[in-house]
Amino acid sequence: MTSPQAVSGEYDARIRRAEKLIADKSSASEILSFYKRISSFQKTFVTQIAEANRQQSTSRSSGAEWPQFGSVRDALDLTLVLPHFRNFLSLVEQNAPNALAAAAREIAALPSESWIALLTAYWENAGRFDQQIGAFAQFFPRAFLQPYAAYIASRTAVPPVLVTLRVCPLCGGRPYVGVLRVEGDGGKRWMVCSFCGYEWDFRRLLCPTCGEEDEKKLPVYVAEQIPHVRVEACETCKFFMRTIDLTKDGYAVPVVDDLAAIPLTLWAHEHGFSRLQPNLFGS
Predict the structure, then answer these.
(1) Cα–Cα distance for residue pair 277/167, rounded to 1 Å
(2) 3 state SS of 20
(3) Could you report the per-residue pLDDT of 201-248, keeping only the tens digit for each?
(4) What are phi and psi of 213, to 5 degrees?
(5) Residue 116 sits in which domain range?
(6) Beta-bridge partner residues of 222
(7) Same domain membership, residue 220 and residue 136
(8) What is the helix (H) or strand (E) element at residue 220, kind and residue range?
(9) Sequence-separated (6 or more) residues with CB below 8 Å from residue 199
C-alpha cells in the first residue's frame, strides 16, 4: 500500500528540483515558479487521497484495502476529487500567467455539471491516439487529476507484458517523456505515461509512435547547455520524444527537467518534428 509519506516525498523532490533549476537561472524559471505552486497543491491533494484510503482500509473489519483495478481508467471517483477542484482553480487564478488565470475564472463560474463533464472527458480520453483536446484546454483537468491517476496506477496490477508496448499497460495512454536510468555499464530506457505517470521499460532503438527500428532514421539531438536532456526523433513519422538521461545527471527529476527544456522543443519544431504528447504546459 502506498503511504502518504511516500506520496508526499515524490512531490517534495519535484519542488526541490524546480527550486534548483530556478536558482541556476533556467530559461524556464517563470514556468517552474508556477509549477512549484501546482506541485504543492498536488502533494496536498494526493496525500489527502492516500489518507482517506488508509482510513477506509482500517475501518473495514476485514482490513482489506481498496480493490486493485484492471485499468486506471476504471477508477474515477468524482465524489472524492470534485470537492477539491474549486481550490485548484483559485490557485491557478491567483498565480498563473494571464491567459491561464482568465481561463480559471471562466471555469470557476461554470456549474458543477460542466466541471464533471470536463474532468470525465479528460479521464476517459487523455493521452490516447484519438484525443482531440489541445494542450491549453487540457491543462486544468491534467494538472488536477494527474496525482489521483498516479495514485490509482500505483494500486493497479500490471498485466504480463511479452512485447515492447508503445502505450501505457495500465491506462492505454501515450508516453510524453522518456528516461534513461543506469543499468550495468549503460542505461536502460523507460517511457513515462502522459496520463497516469506510470513508467514501463522500452527498447533503446524503437520509435514509440510508429515502431521504426532503423537507427539511421532515429536521430538524437543534445544541446550543449543541457546535455542530460535528449531529443529522440523519428524521420519516418516525424514525431519526437524528449528523454531525460539520468546516467548524465542523477539529480534530475524527469517531470521537472522536461518542463525546463524549452529550447529543445524549439529545435524539434524548427526541424519539422512534433511532440508525441506535450507536457503539462504544452511544450
Answers:
(1) 12
(2) helix
(3) 999 999 999 999 999 999 999 998 899 999 999 999 999 999 999 999
(4) -120, -10
(5) 4-153
(6) 230
(7) no
(8) strand 220-222
(9) 179, 190, 191, 192, 193
